[in-house]
Amino acid sequence: MTQRWQPALLDSQQPGGWALVHCRQQFLADSNGVLFPREWLKKQELPILAEHGIGHFDGDAIYLLELQQPVDMPACSWQSLRQFMLQGDADTFKMLGYATQIGTWARQHRFCGSCGEPMEHFPGERAMHCPRCELHHYPRLSPSMIVLVTRGDEILLARSPRFVPGVYSTLAGFVEAGESVEQCVAREVHEEVGVEIKNLQYLGSQGWPFPHSLMLGFHAEYAAGEIVMQADEIEDAQWFSVHQLPPLPAPRSIARYLIDVYVAQRLGLPAPSLLV
Questions:
Q1: Per residue in 64-98, pLDDT tens?
Q2: Residue 167 is part of a domain; what is its CATH number?
């Protein structure tokens, strides 16, 4: 099946195309959506911090205008990336997820972290280049793990104080320097809920642009231990029956996918698919 969204490095010096307007994980939108005629936008005196050609949507060239700060425009509103994840179509979310990672990277790498010199776009690559000390910066990607721990017909779910009230999810954490993803899974599970795991199985990955994670999804079986919640990180953690689950994460998230896969297996239901 042809993908509507195709990332690509486009020359921002070329005219035409459509543009997204982004600022701090929010996109400008009107009744027609998030894509605006690029040449029209560039006449609106927007506080543009950076411009990047990011790819093609339905064959049309797409550019990103990263703003210094949000601005008010007639008949337009700002919508968060999470709103599009919950309400928009999958292809649009893929495009916006990519755009927000490029926009965040552009905002955070305007100056060289080594010498402080203003950074420049490096021709032919998605990279920022320091003309003084020759340092290159590519878009940042932060690997992290997310895991569903199970015990027969029970699944271990937890909630952070940052979650929407009532929602429980799988366990997750960032990979630390020098450790493998498998080591990260075991460490994070033990740190967050105090239990040991076994039979770790990789299920899939998902780019998670909040702001620049790559989530590596796993299933693990319970091995030993009682739940001991990590202070300041875990508000509650419980074993839940697959027949009686609490409110769960958004359907398009890899956390929900891990849960749905296991529930489908235990109840003999069709296997779900993951938005990638």
A1: 999 999 999 999 999 999 899 888 788 999 999 99
A2: 3.90.79.10
